[in-house]
Amino acid sequence: MLLLPVIQPEAAAPARPRKPDWLRVKLPVGPEYARVRKLVDENKLHTICESGNCPNMGECWGAGTATFMILGNICTRSCSFCAVATGRPNEYDTDEPRRVAEAILTMGVKHAVITSVNRDELKDRGASIWHETVVRIKQLSPATTIETLIPDVKANWEALDVMISGGQEVISHNVETVGSLYRLVRPQAKYDRSLEQIRRTKAAGHRTKSGIMLGLGETKDEMYKAMDDLVANGLDILTLGQYLQPTKRHLEVAEFIHPDLFAHYREEGLKRGLKYVESGPLVRSSYHAERHVNVPI
Question: Is 219 exposed, middle or buried (0-12, 13-18, 19+ CB in 10 A)?
Answer without folding.
Answer: exposed
